[in-house]
Amino acid sequence: MPADEGSLAHRRHVPFRVIELDSLTDRLDLARIFGRAAPVHIDLGCGEGSFLCALAQRMPDKNFLGIERLLNRVRASARKAAALDNVRLLRTESFYAVRYLLPAESVERFYLLFPDPWPKRRHHGRRIFSRDFLDSIAAALEAGGFLHVATDQSDYFQQIEQSGRVHPQFEIVRRDDFILPLTRFERRFREQGAPIYRLTLHKLWERGGDRTVSAKPLGARPANR
Ligand SMILES: C[S@@+](CC[C@H](N)C(=O)[O-])C[C@H]1O[C@@H](n2cnc3c(N)ncnc32)[C@H](O)[C@@H]1O
């Protein structure tokens, strides 16, 4: 158990899987937080944590961080994660965490699944996905890392797809064999028969302003890593 968990365990209102930040500006020491060095996957807006915990159970060799701004959902996630050593929760705003708290090139996969849709045009500025957001994701991802996105909003999806297409550090994955567990919102949308749009972005191994850099095969790692 990481040293900081013991101090939280006695506080009944804070489940011990929840990270307590010492600083709002220092980058997270992920190996210390998880008590081991392992590839890190991050679920942005993890809700009540069922997706996060299902994935963490499936991949015990990876570290899973759920980021969520609502306290009751963080608590629900932490309760589900009680028996999972490889899960931690952080209650904060996702974009802030990606931009200011995550070390450069520290994340193997991000998941942004059914982000708040803000369907009214006058609210589109509140949507989390923007060019700035994608730049921050690129900085936090390892070379060859992935961002998985899903939404039920067609116009939001088109914006995300277009951003991925023109970003010099990403390519769109055409055939994604990485099967994800259902999220709570996905279950709900499926029951309603709502359309679901998905996209996986792959961070290129080398920065290529002219988009001509070819990515190595999915899942492959350069020999020196
Ligand atoms: C529509 S729900 C989807 C939850 C989960 N990903 C799923 O698919 O079931 C969006 C979640 O993201 C959280 N959220 C929205 N914007 C956020 C932000 N900027 N930072 C952190 N969490 C956010 C909400 O509180 C909510 O739990």
Structural write-up:
Strands 3-2-1-4-5-7-6 form a seven-stranded mixed beta sheet, with helices on both faces. It has eight helices and seven strands; from the N terminus they run H-H-E-H-E-H-E-H-E-H-E-H-E-H-E. Helix 6 links the parallel strand 4 and strand 5. By secondary structure, it is of the alpha/beta class. The two termini are 28 Å apart. It binds S-adenosylmethionine (SAM). Residues 45-47, 67-70, 73, 93-95, 113-116, 128, 183-186 line the site of S-adenosylmethionine.
Provide a brief overview of the structure.
The chain has 225 residues and is α/β, with parallel strands linked by helices.
Q: Main sheet, how many strands, which sense, barrel?
A: 7 strands, mixed
Strand fraction band? 15-25%
Structural class: alpha/beta
Report low-confidence residues grouped into runs of 5 or more.
Answer: 1-14, 209-225
Number of DSSP-assigned strands: 7
Rg for CA atoms? 17 Å
Into which percent range does the helicity of residues fall? 25-40%
The small molecules bound here are: S-adenosylmethionine
- In round numbers, the mean pLDDT is 88
Salient structural properties:
single chain; 225 residues; alpha/beta; 7-stranded mixed sheet; 32% helix; binds S-adenosylmethionine
Task: Break the fold down into its secondary structure elements and pairings.
Layout: H1 3-9, H2 30-34, E1 40-44, H3 50-58, E2 63-68, H4 71-80, E3 87-91, H5 94-101, E4 107-113, H6 131-140, E5 141-151, H7 154-166, E6 170-172, H8 184-192, E7 197-203
Parallel strand pairs: 1-2, 1-4, 2-3, 4-5
Antiparallel strand pairs: 5-7, 6-7
